Amino acid sequence: MGKYLNMIDAAPAADKWPMVRELMMRERQPFFAEMQSERPVLQLPDDMVFITRYVDCTLVLNRWNDFGVDLYKPKQGDYFMAQDDTADHWRDKSIMKSILDFEDLPAMRKFVGERAASLLREGQGAIDAPQSLTRAVPVSLVQEFFGFQGSNPKKLIDWSYWNQQDAFHNQPFDRDVTPDPDHIVAERKRANIHLAFYIGRVLLKRVLQVKFGGDRQDSVSRLVRLSFSKGVKFPLKKVLFNAGGLLIGAVETTSHAVNNALAELLSRPDVLERAKAAAASPDPKDFDGFVFEALRFNPAFPYFFRTCHTPTTLGGGTPHAVEVKPGTTVIACTHAAMFDEAGYTDPPAFDSRRGLYQTFTLGYGHHECLGRAVASVMVPEIVRQVLLLPDIRQEGPIVYQGGVPEHYALRWAA
């Protein structure tokens, strides 16, 4: 048995999952390789299972009736992303995808590039990326394209932050790294009260504009017109709820992904030079693969969690097969899955040709990120603007707080 499994097996029960999480972050590739070959289904205390193979991760994330998002419901209530195969999920996600028009992507990318470049010019050679760039740019996009014009950026960031903290970093299995879970819940509830009042005021304005012939094309206005049409079951309460979801999903996740991609590229001198050359190409899409591949190595979400509903065999076809029972929390380590030879050719190699769809960066299956199309242009464009700076460098590693990038000092020749 390998050294990692020896360490895990010898650890006290309460230390096993924290140890696995630390190994996943600090010694990722050798740890993943050992797990996939020797124990692809690792049973942990407190009815937890940790899986690393590509085939098992895709099985769990594809079979939503067998593995559900139960743990999101206490955090997100009736929001469709906290549901699996329900009428609300079916309808609401379809509506939200339809109002995020693909046709808007070139304009969004242009806007993001200009906004990022402006903020970087203001930095005059130095910037703390999370504080002054990677949250500020998606907030600006939310204001411009989603219908939040005239809002306070700091409040939008605050509302997104606490919702993301509670949903993704304040689960029962996070208790060893979350010093005050109740505080996070209280902050999320406070944020949502303020967010609901704010969106209520936005809706009042949009309702009047729509009724009196306004032709605004932001996301909230589209939702109001759809609600008024009575063509589908989508009352104004749904508009309010889902408009809030647009904000919550756009800011903190974008910031996390941008910082992680930058840190990975800036730590690879040979790749960095090729990425810089691609960033200067007339077609920015030549560059995007560098960002998506960087996120394969350094994802914002190294795992997704699901609750087992149906007895299911994982690790099938190996001597380590395990039947997972209902109620078990399954940690699908998609970070490991992206280095499984069963799913990837030469996984240790940095290959910018792989593209976004060969990763789990924006989720997978039924609960793939709603904003996939927007993120696919916004994240690489922010990174691209940074790499266009002369002599760009990092002044130390990302400082994470609460599981997300809070400080990351960048310098360049002004």
Automatic annotation (TrEMBL):
* Coiled-coil regions listed in the entry: none
Q: Which InterPro entries match?
A: Cyt_P450, Cyt_P450_B, Cyt_P450_sf
What Pfam families is this protein classified in?
p450
Quote one Gene Ontology molecular function term: heme binding
Q: Which family does it belong to?
A: Belongs to the cytochrome P450 family.
**Under what name is this protein listed?**
Cytochrome P450
- Native species: Allosphingosinicella deserti
